[in-house]
Every structure is written in structure tokens, then in C-alpha cells.
Amino acid sequence: MLVAGIDSSTQSTKVVLCQAEDGRIVDQVSAPHPDGTECHPRHWSHALDQARGLLERADAVAVAAQQHGMVALDEDGEVIRPALLWNDTRSAPQARALVEKLGGGAAWARRAGSVPVASFTVTKLRWMAENEPDNAARTAAVLLPHDWLTWKLGADGYVTDRGDASGTGYWSPATGRYLPEIVTEALGHEPRLPRVAAPAEAVGETAWGARIGPGTGDNMGAALGLGLREGDVVLSIGTSGTAFAVADRPAADPSGLVAGFADATGRFLPLVCTLNAARILTSAAAMIGADLDELSRLALAAEPGAGGLTLLPYLDGERTPDRPDATGVLAGLTTSNATRENIARAAVEALLCSLADAVEHLAAQGVRPRRTLLIGGGARSEAVRALAPAILGTPVTVPEPAEYVALGAARQAAWVLAGTPEPPAWPDRPATEHEAAPADAAAAESVRARYGVLRDATATWGSNRTDNA
């Protein structure tokens, strides 16, 4: 039997068709989405339509999609406005106001598992209520991107899963229940919210007769696609950077640095997300007139520590730490170290220092790494793979490049077909192991120290944008 997994990400739709019993990829296809921080959901449907022939070969299908996006629907199920995506930070003031009004970080962590920042759906609802009151008043239902696509595929009504629901800010991973008082406070009234399905529940049937899985969020899909076990820590370098691990108990971090998400299997997925990740590399490459391969070669040609250059990579604001109005800072620049090699090295070191901070935040919530896995587009950089073990302070496993979010959705679809208590045990993908080079290991402590000093010093600046409105 064949199963299809859909990854509807910020940038594109990827679909993989796999054998249900072992996950072997039979076929795959992708289509782009428009760029930006908001997107009308019809673009996701149009991208998915390009995979219709592949999808119709599947006996079961499931969707994993970008988390947090706000899809507001009217009484007739029509989209009211373009969906606000996770990377839209306009709701930062509303996030701060909601946290303060409803008791502060400790109260939010206890009730919702996370302290909301601008990425979370609940803050976007509050922004709409304050800035588009007519749209807010028309909103009869609120879905997430994967919920909307699952519904369009043929689900029986509005349905979600516990993993994606845990990123809204109005569903509790600890209790498994919605928090209607929070969504009402945000929107001004209580909308219809999707039913939270069980992890392997069939939630409907497509037009061609395939079973539909409940789907999940992208990070939960990646965890399922990788077959994570307790003690595995994943660093995913995509548009955003994420560090996450599977756990048996929910996290509740009052600082807000760790989001206490649920996963797609009935367990939990403590996660740290940075707004800037692979874009650090692409921006640095553009700065020095290089492509990504050349950036990697230049970074490896420079000495550890980039000749004293330190980049704070908050290029478009940042989520962890929560600085939505921040900009990037390049410190330590002199006439002697202003080389393409050093700038490239500083960019790679900055990316990895940011992820190393994220791993430390997970450790503070009880995660004890057994191994570190590096995935995502940024993990294809030779320089990232080479420098990661020293800066992270641990050997790094790099699974072969694959669409792990889509594979996770496909594995969920296979689970729906199997009807077993646990997901099917697909084999691990081939991987390479990387350890720190002696020179990099010796310099890594200094690199992280300089990064930490710059990070902490800029925390007192407030907004360093000139266009902050």
C-alpha cells in the first residue's frame, strides 16, 4: 500500500509518496508558495493541486504544515483575510499585552504550556481584533494551516491534532483541553475551534477514497519522520531554526524560551525556535557576493573565531530571545579582519551559537541529549556540518537530506492504515557522523563567549531599528 505525506511549509508544498510498510520513497513533487509573512490559503491549495496525480495513488494521506498561522473563516467557511503566518511579527505588542493581562509568564506556562510571542496564533487574533475589528467580528472559526488543508482534502469537519493545537496559545498540552477564556480574550468572542483528533485517527476520506490522517505541525512531523526517541535532540536549520526533543512529560518554562508543545504521537515536544537560521547564510552570502557553496568554502578557509568578528544574527527581529524589533549587529570589525572569509565564518559561527543557546534552554527544562541530529536546508552546508560539533560541544549526526516533515506526515498516514498503538517502525535514514576538529574545539569556547557578551549587551538597547513604528 502507498501513503502520501504533505509538507505545506512557508516557502513551498512538498509531497512524498511512500510504501506504507517501510517508508521507501516511491515518488515526490514540490511547488512554490508566494513569499511573505501572510498568504491567502488558496495558494496552498493551488500548490497542492500540482501534486494531484501523485496524491491519487495513495491509500492514505496526512498533512504537516507550518505552525501557528491564523486562518480566519466566516460562517460559510470562507477565508476572511490572508492567513497571518508564524514569521509575521506585527502582533508583538499584543503578545506582551496578553502575557501581562493574563498573569505573566508563569501563569501562561502553567495553563498553556508556553508563553506566547508574536508567532503564536492567539497573538494574531488579538492583533486582528484591535486593528481589523470588522474581520474579527466576522470570524466564526479559526484554523491552522494544516487544519485548513486537511479540511479541504475531505476531513469530516474542522479537525486538528494535539501537536499543532499546542502552538496556538489556547490549548493546554498538560490537560488536553482548549482554553476558551483565552481565545475569547484575544478575539473578543469565542469562535469555533477544530476538534482535536487522536494521533492515528482517520478523520475523513478523500474524493479518491484515501483515508485522511489528523496531520500535525511541521516540527512534530519532522520528529515523526526522523523516528525520534527520548534523548534525541534535533536542530533544524530552515527558514527558522528549531531545537526540539521528544519527552514523556510536558514542559512549562515561565521564561518563554522553551515552548511546551505536544508531539504527534501522544507525547510532548519541548521546542526552542529562532526566527533567523538559514537566512543568516543567504544574507551573508549576498553581502559578500557569493553563493552558498562559496560561502561555505570561504568560512572553512578562515581561522576559528573569524579574526575577531562576531555577528549577532537578529536580521529580521528575533523570537528567541524575544526581540521582534531587533536588527543584526556585526562587532569587532577592523581594517585587517574585514575579509570575505571572516564574514563568512562569522555568519556560520553566529548561526551555530544561536542554536547552541537553544540546546541549553532545552537542557534547563530537563532534556538530556543522547545524540544531536542536524537537519534542514542549512545542514547541507559543509561549513555548518564541520563547525557544529565544536560549537555545540557534542558529536553531530547528519541524516541524509530528505523531506522529513513530509516523511513524518506519510508515516502518520501509514499509522492510520496500520491501526497499531505505535507508528510503524520505519528504518532510520542513512546518516554521517561529525566530530570537532582540534583547532575548532579549542576556539569554540572563545567564540561562544564573545557571542554571549554581544547578545547580552544588546539586550539593554531596546529596539535598534530606525523604522520602528
TrEMBL record:
CDD domains: ASKHA_NBD_FGGY_BaXK-like. Catalyzes the phosphorylation of D-xylulose to D-xylulose 5-phosphate. HAMAP family: XylB (MF_02220). The active site is at D218. It comes from Actinomadura rubrobrunea. Keywords: ATP-binding, Carbohydrate metabolism, Kinase, Nucleotide-binding, Transferase, Xylose metabolism. One of its GO terms (biological process) is D-xylose metabolic process. Its EC number is 2.7.1.17. It catalyses: D-xylulose + ATP = D-xylulose 5-phosphate + ADP + H(+). Residues 234-415 form the Carbohydrate kinase FGGY C-terminal domain. Pfam families: FGGY_C, FGGY_N. It is an enzyme of class 2 (transferase). The record marks D7 as: Important for activity. Gene3D superfamilies: 3.30.420.40. NCBIfam families: XylB. PROSITE patterns: FGGY_KINASES_1, FGGY_KINASES_2. Residues 3-207 form the Carbohydrate kinase FGGY N-terminal domain. The keyword Kinase applies. It comes from the Bacteria. Substrate binds at Q67, H68. Residues 421-442 are annotated as: Disordered. One of its GO terms (molecular function) is ATP binding. The gene is xylB. InterPro entries: ATPase_NBD (IPR043129), Carb_kinase_FGGY (IPR000577), Carb_kinase_FGGY_CS (IPR018483), FGGY_C (IPR018485), FGGY_Carb_Kinase (IPR050406), FGGY_N (IPR018484), Xylulokinase (IPR006000). This is Xylulose kinase. Belongs to the FGGY kinase family.
